Amino acid sequence: NAGVMQNPRHLVRRRGQEARLRCSPMKGHSHVYWYRQLPEEGLKFMVYLQKENIIDESGMPKERFSAEFPKEGPSILRIQQVVRGDSAAYFCASSPPKENTEAFFGQGTRLTVV
Amino acid sequence: GESVGLHLPTLSVQEGDNSIINCAYSNSASDYFIWYKQESGKGPQFIIDIRSNMDKRQGQRVTVLLNKTVKHLSLQIAATQPGDSAVYFCAVRVSGGYNKLIFGAGTRLAVHP
């Protein structure tokens, strides 16, 4: 049973470009979470999705950021018109479709905006 | 809102010693607490958790203590090994039953031979 898979592991974008980060949850997991981590800081919650639904996006910036988890395929975190301040590690976690269960994290995508 | 903080940003220990990493949280309604280990370039790895109806839980070489009176959480690592060197985060789940976690800033544990 493969863990949470994120790709790419490293992504370099110029200011103004779009970044697309992908997350494939563990088998049997239908709940996906995205977190952002700045250097030397803890992870910050961004969004919680179930298949085809955004459940909690209270941590998402109001502009340029969007997330989806389609019926088929991975969850996508999309950042439009990236700026230097978007440089961070973005982690995805997944959990089974049950309350009060542990979430498992992927290895992250390190986004660098130049 | 919820906040989670750590008392020490860096902890250096000798191999074989016991390590204690501390964490404070602010929301007395928090019901689930987790410790994660993060090695360089990797994602957080679950170590141990504890629910608010407990005050102590033990795993393999690790113990988590929860003091709800003073809203304090600690992770004890017995016989610390070089492989334990990493950044350790405490995290608190916001009530709601799903994994919306508030993470502390992290403590770097350095184990010296």
Number of strands of chain B: 11
Largest sheet of chain A: 7 strands, mixed
Biggest beta sheet summary of chain B: 6 strands, mixed
| N- to C-terminal distance of chain B | 41 Å
Indicate the percent of residues in helices of chain A: under 10%
Rounded to an integer in angstroms, the radius of gyration calculated over CA atoms of chain A is 13 Å
What is the approximate shape of chain A? Answer: globular
Give the overall average pLDDT of chain B: 90
Oligomer: heterodimer
Strand residue percentage of chain B: over 45%
Count of helical regions of chain A? 0
- Helical content of chain B stands at under 10%
Explain what the structure shows.
The complex is a heterodimer of chains A (114) and B (113). Chain A is an all-beta fold. Chain A is 0% helix and 49% strand. Chain A has no helices and 11 strands. Chain A has strands at 5-7, 10-13, 19-24, 31-37, 43-50, 53-56, 65-68, 75-79, 88-95, 104-105, 109-113. In chain A, the strands form 2 sheets. In chain A, strands 2, 4, 5, 6, 9, 10 and 11 form a 7-stranded mixed β-sheet that branches. Chain A starts with a strand and ends with a strand. With 113 residues, chain B is mostly beta strands. Chain B contains no helices and 11 strands. Chain B has strands at residues 4-6, 10-14, 19-25, 32-38, 45-51, 56-58, 62-67, 72-77, 86-93, 101-103, 107-112. In chain B, the strands form 2 sheets. In chain B, strands 2, 4, 5, 9, 10 and 11 form a 6-stranded mixed β-sheet that branches. Chain B has a 5-stranded antiparallel β-sheet with strand order 1-3-8-7-6, with no helix packed on it. The N and C termini of chain B lie far apart (41 Å). In chain B, 35% of the residues are buried. The A-B interface holds A 4, 31, 33, 35, 40-45, 48, 55-56, 58, 91, 93, 95, 99-100, 102-108 and B 4, 32, 34, 36, 41-46, 49, 89, 91, 96-106.
